Amino acid sequence: MHPLSTAHLPFLNLFFENSKTRIPEYLTPLGYIIYSELNPILERVYLIIDIGTFIYGKDFRAEVTVLAANEEKFRKYRDDKKAIYQYHHNHFGGDTVQMLQSKLGSLEEGETYFVESNYHSHDNPMDHVYKLKAEEYIATLTEWFTAHPVNRSRIYDLGNHEEVDKHVLGLYNSGSQRVLNCINLRDLARYGYGPRKSWENNQWFNKYYASLKDLVILSIRNNKSLLPEALDMIKGYKYLVELDLSDNNLDTVPPGLDTLADLKRVIFRHNNFTGMEGFTNLAQIQQLDLTDNFITAIPTEIAKMESLEVLDLTSNKITELPIELLQLKNLRVLNLSNNPLKKLPEWIGQLTGLEELHLVQTQLEGLPESFVNLKVSGKIYLKKNPFKELPAGMLGMGKVIDLEERNIALYNPKIKKKLEGLPRGNVKMSADLNFKLMVVQRLMYEDELLLPKFDVYEFVKNHKGRAIDLEEISYEMIPEVKAWFEDLDIPLELLWDIKELRADGGDEIYHELIPHWDGEDDAFDVVSAEDVKYFPNLKKITLMGNNKEVVKFLRGQKIKVSFL
């Protein structure tokens, strides 16, 4: 094995986000990286980074597992050359190691082999295996991972197949006792199901978890409540990088998060926060996700979050934006979709450095003239807004704007002229109800443009005709519901932007007509696609059934057809 030194520490740290002390140890004969660190009980544990790729030099991926849980067990790899070759043999399977030695020759000092993951599937597999100078190989990895940072949020192997719990680095929904046995645990996710009446009954997140000092990612979601004692111990995870406490009925920020210097991502979706107090003190974090809470305002203290790169406030109650957002010089993604903004401030054009700005479904009827000065390297998402007028200067913003054609026509004369030739008004789309249902699924339940959404339980409750018992007829199509959808008007303007339609047995629309439909029969197969004539931009459609006449007709209209 090629020995590594402290000079390789910057290279090693490319794979990690926190400040835990690590020691580079060796590069293995097949290009894996061994490093060591102390675990919470002060044993020196040896971990190995599996580097893989399908095209050498073009793309790499990384996964970390435990090689040896203490120094004594690592000694065999350090002292016995055959042991690390056997590790690779067990990992790759077959005779990969023997093949490399026979075809490429034995390794000299300072060399390593590297094998592309799919080398054996090529006609010339030897073109996809390499003998490399170790330092040149490390330089290649350094260049790649510097330019393309690894998705470090999921670098740890789940490890549920490991022989011993000390080798497990990531656990999802395992039992409480299993978690406590995994002393080297880095990534813990638990999806709970209901009220925790006492500390002793809070099995998914209890006081004993305080011993898991090396946690990097903690995700505890969907509990009716989390006890104060549980929230209080989070500040003890000094290496924590990501904290996800979504769906827990929280309205208070756990104490001490501002002391966690490594904390970068905080995700508290679907909780009960009405303000951002407590979050604005987290000056060290890079991502804050408070989607689907009850936040009414972004406080001026947001300016303190100087490291913030991603701010997601989707589906809150925010009506205006503070000018202090201009002080967030590192902000790349700002998501304000589904908030009742109604209008944007004049200073919006001064935002710089953004890659994405999401303003979908924000009740905007217009945009200030300064909007055209907004510099975004990626996209500005503006769909699902009731625009009445837009600045003519937006024409110069080009494809940065993601907007329906009917609204692009407000500032683009070419699109306006194109749409003036299209029919307007409403249509029943009566050629085939099942085709119409695909359209309603898209407009009503996905794009949320055809509102209000139909709810069969509300329909039955308010129905003035015969009594409808859903428990008795929920496996049959309800005639009254069928008639409602048949009579539903579809505004032609909503069809102009649809480029793709897709039917799926799990779509909500089908369960409105047959509440307990199992998706196994042909009740909703399309038998006529004549109504595609109303779709000027439809390019692709996915069907549940394979009606040959329908397929032939659609392909004749230059529409690509696929099937579930």
Structural overview:
It is a single chain. Helix 2 crosses helix 3 (81-92). The protein is 21% helix and 18% strand. It has 564 residues and is of the alpha/beta class. It has 4 domains: 2-154, no CATH class; 157-242, no CATH class; 273-421, Leucine-rich repeat, LRR (right-handed beta-alpha superhelix), CATH 3.80.10.10; 426-563, no CATH class. The strands form 5 sheets. The protein has an 11-stranded parallel beta sheet, with no helix packed on it. A 5-stranded antiparallel beta sheet has the order 1-2-3-4-5. A 3-stranded parallel beta sheet has the order 21-22-23. The chain starts with a strand and ends with a strand. A hairpin with a 5-residue loop joins strand 2 (23-27) and strand 3. Mean pLDDT is 90; it is low at 196-200.
What share of residues is helical?
10-25%
Q: How do the strands of the widest beta sheet line up side by side?
A: 8-9-10-11-12-13-14-15-16-17-18
Structural class: alpha/beta
Number of strands: 23
Distance between the termini: 50 Å
InterPro entries: DUF6892 (IPR054187), Leu-rich_rpt (IPR001611), Leu-rich_rpt_typical-subtyp (IPR003591), LRR_dom_sf (IPR032675), LRR_domain-containing (IPR050216)
Keywords: Leucine-rich repeat, Repeat
Domain DUF6892: 430-561
Organism: Flavobacterium arundinis
